[in-house]
Amino acid sequence: MTIRRLALAAGVALSVLCAGCGADLVGAPPATDRASLFDELWKQFDLHYSFFELKRIDWGAMRARYRPAALAAPNDRAFATVLASMLAELRDVHVTLTPFGPGSTMRYRTPFDTLASDLSETLIFSAYVPNAAATSGGHLRFGMLANGVGYIRIPSFEGNDWAGEVDEALDQMPGASAMVIDVRANGGGSRLVARDIAGRFADRPHTFGYLRYRNGPGHGDFTDLVPETVEPRGARRFSGPVVVLTSRRDYSSAEDFVLAMRALPRTTVVGDTTGGASGGPIVRELANGWTYQISQWIEYTPAKQIFEGIGLAPDVVVKPDVRSIAAKRDAVVDRAVALATVR
Amino acid sequence: MFRGTIAPTTAWLCALAVHATAAQTGQARFTTSLTASAGVTFAQHTDQSASPLLFAGSGFAERLDYERAGRRWTTTLGISSLIRDDVSRATAAAPVRERSIQGGLAWTAVRPLIDRARATLAAGLTLDARGTLLAHHYDDPAATVSWFASAFATVGPAVRWRWMVPGGTAILRASAPLVGVAHRPYSDVRIEQAAPALRLVTVSDLRAFDASAAVETAPARPIGLRAEVNVGTFRYSDVQSMRAASAGFSLGVVARFGAPRP
């Protein structure tokens, strides 16, 4: 009799627990009204963005300033514009908002983005490397410059698992005495690809920088410094002198590449200071499906200096020279060849 | 969706309980058993570290249990795994997908409170360790996939009620964590490279409940079959909270060893 009563009690208790609480256990779907979306976006940046203190941004003031305009926005496009304007206050090219799918990404534009381009690939591949070839995946173009100097053009680090294409380029330039790697106007992409390519020129592991990850709700909550290391990669490595060409439009993973390369002993960086975008973004989404990116770490040079918003200075400064381009010359390549030949 | 899954499950449980208590039969028990089972699971969940969206989906679960009945204590060691695919149910323009990969290890020891020839009500504790890898597919232009990890090791009370039914044995189990440790990174696996930060959790942070009802056939024979329904809830409060509710059904084979106890 006791068992029977217990059975009934257990059955009733279980049915009450389970049948009565369904959706309540996990909560209702998140709200998608503009106030909720604005607050969620603001909160996620408050929880994860890494440069509030460095850039001395009063995020609470931004909320007070932009929230009324966001709530008063007449349509979704205007609402997105207000959100993007608030995010632009962070002056961070890694911070984006993509409200309406591919092609709708809104991001902060640096002053360098609006300058006339100082790089002409047409000029390079007509005047300097006329016999250039592309690698099998199409990510790289390469060929021989004057005086037995090899040239590899890396316009982007977008995509995954294609670092091996550098091996193709190196295999086809076996007699190169030095190598020029041109990453000018490279907007970044995969850090792993950038690091793996740098590994083709590494003689041994080198620490090329440090990261501190945002790891708590306080704006100053970060992990300790985590070293970043470039290690020898690939079946074939180039051990000769290397000249890396940089420009103001180098961002993110392109700057990781420059950091990694300049940690190697036989590398010279030539050109202009890089763009200074080091945040390492994560992707998030709002309840209405809009996606956005948040910088979530601070990157340091081997000397433990922050270069966000500053950039990485080259070893040899060669400023953009529009007149030389007009004269069918690329001053940065000319200087690189001269340096590579001397070395 | 979840209500639709829970309601028949609960009805089945109640019918089983009432039927079982009305028709108890005496059968022998072995001291040791090994059970392998597999089945489907349905769940709703939200993980704020990945997304504010609410997800629902189904998956495949496997479980292996080794049980040994001693003079006073019956212990069970179980390992489990689960792969589940979920889709967002919010108003996002395009459905967002997640995949959960879970693994668990549980050790339970229960001791009879009421021990009769045909039924036993036992209580004790459960040590439960479970880890989850969550792959979140963002609908951004780069089609980013981020992985989020979490792990919990807890201890809490467990009860088990076992009784004879015509042709078999019915078993009800329930457990809930009281205290434990949680490894809950602040960000996704790609970002979070720092050493694991364990956090002590109690019922104020972690409220969970697992229950199951099973029927095993041919308890007097070395081999039997098991059918089981289970339900569970999980609610973890942190800066970025997690909530989940699940229900499942599985079928398995029970191999019994040791001298049967009359």
Percent strand of chain B: over 45%
Order of helix and strand elements from N to C terminus of chain A: HHHHEEHEEEHEHEEEHEEEEEHH
Largest interface: A-B, 55 and 64 residues
CATH third-level topology of chain B: Lipocalin
Low-confidence stretches of chain B: 1-27
Major sheet: arrangement of strands of chain B: 1-2-3-4-5-6-7-10-11-12
Return the domain count of chain B: 1
Summing up helix and strand content along with how strands pair, one would put the structural category of chain B as mainly beta
Judged by helices, strands and strand pairing, the structural class of chain A is alpha/beta
Helical segment count of chain A: 10
Task: From the structure above, extract its key features.
heterodimer; A: alpha/beta; 7-stranded mixed beta sheet; 4-stranded antiparallel beta sheet; B: 262 residues; mainly beta; 10-stranded antiparallel beta barrel; 1 helix; disordered N terminus
